[in-house]
Amino acid sequence: MPVKCKFVDHKSLTTFTMRYNIPPADLYIQNRANLRKQLPARSVAVFNSNDIMPTNADGTMPFRQNNDLLYMCGIDQEDTTLVIMPDHPDESLREVLFLKETSELIAIWEGHKFTKEEARAISGIKTIMWNTEFERVFNTIAVEADTIYLNSNEHTRAVLTVETRDDRFSKWCHGKYPQHQYGRLAPIMHQLRAIKSEVELTMMQKACDITEAGFRRVLSFLQPGVMEYEVEAEFIHEFIRQGSRGFAYAPIIASGFSACVLHYVDNDKPCQDGDVLLLDVGAEYGNYNADMTRAIPVNGRFTDRQKAVYNAVLRVKNEATNMLRPGVILHEYNKEVGKVMESELLGLGLLDKTDIKNQDPENPAYKKYFMHGTSHFLGLDVHDVGNFYQPIKEGMVFTVEPGIYIREENLGIRLEDNIVIQKHGHLNLMKNIPIEADEIEEIMNS
């Protein structure tokens, strides 16, 4: 079970407060210790914050910290750089955190920024400097290093069209230090971040609990004629009220046929009597994410056909969950889940034995109604980093989300929970969120 953790006391951070409980510095101290074990001698690693992205004119998007930097130091603020050289001769330069220096003007227009003392309390890093000192200090560190490890987004599904702060730093660094060797931090970070600590699981449990509160609110709110965006509003109200910054990802509030569109995010149609509403939503908490999917009857009662499809998906989800255990390869696991789904589709009359006999092994018949993967890593990213070709390990967290989409029946059912891999079995972070069809009907009609 996730443990109750002692979080950083906001009172110790002078005037600085945040929406979420800040994890203890021990989390980041341990994360950096784990990184140091992966770095060869005479190496320096550099982590940069994300940029504040523009919209139009002088508008900007809400800031979202680079998750690798956050994982290493907990500093949720722009214009931040972390430099780690474990064996630098000067002990004070083995970990250096660079921050944006505030001013009276910044305080008036933007509000409080981290002081050195606050950053030290959160990160556990002793040497804190302002960004104006970066080039001089980094040069002092770099000349003692043989290899510079740089960070980049190497997620297999990333669409990389925007130059990031990491990209700009890489160009600068290669130009400034062309004789150094260079290494990739991404593979190391994918390995480290895939295993969740108890503190991280506590944060993720909180995100799931907030998601549960939003879902229960919607169960009592939904009725025929309600617009999908009204349901979205119920979720966001509850999420923000409980200390989340909002949705972990663009929410899918899909009624009727829209549930058969996998990434439907318009959320602009009425919820009709007799339809099923698919809800793929999750709250974030302290940058950690929940990822839940449920399907509920708009009028409070499933038809016999809807319930039959619903229960078929639930059985697949339960079997798939039991398959997730240490040593399993996700690539192979997805194939096995497909076989379970094939059996359920036969039982529903959506496939017959001829379909199975004549199917293309590269494109199995079940994919007509279940065309996506069953599980992905979850954590600081909704589609978190990790390796799909290496064996599953204890402490990893995955979604389990099978679905059946019957376009000719205007019916899409997907069910999704968040699962922690344990030595013997698993822990469902969403075990308290209603999922049985009868329980959902009972709540909606109470």
**Looking at the chains present, what oligomeric state does this protein adopt?**
single chain
CATH hierarchy, class of the largest domain: Alpha Beta
Low-confidence stretches: none
Q: Helix proportion of residues, in percent?
A: 25-40%
Spatial sequence of strands, sheet with the most strands: 4-3-2-1-5-6
Taking all Cα atoms into account, the compactness measure Rg is 24 Å
**Average pLDDT number:** 95
First-to-last CA distance: 31 Å
Which series of helices and strands comes N to C?
HEHEEHHEHEHEHHHEEEEEHHHEEEEEH
CATH superfamily of the largest domain: Creatinase/methionine aminopeptidase superfamily
**How many beta strands in the DSSP annotation?**
16
Shape: globular
Strand content: 15-25%
**Biggest sheet character:** 6 strands, mixed
CATH topology of the largest domain: Creatine Amidinohydrolase
Structure description:
The protein is α+β, with helices and mostly antiparallel strands. The protein folds into 2 domains: 10-194, 3-Layer(aba) Sandwich (Creatine Amidinohydrolase, Chain A, domain 1), CATH 3.40.350.10; 198-444, Creatine Amidinohydrolase (Alpha-Beta Complex). It is 35% helix and 15% strand. The protein is built from 13 helices and 16 strands. The strands form 5 sheets. Strands 4-3-2-1-5-6 form a 6-stranded mixed beta sheet, with helices on both faces. A hairpin with a 4-residue loop joins strand 13 (403-406) and strand 14. It starts with 24 loop residues before the first helix and ends with a helix. The model has no long low-confidence stretch (mean pLDDT 95).
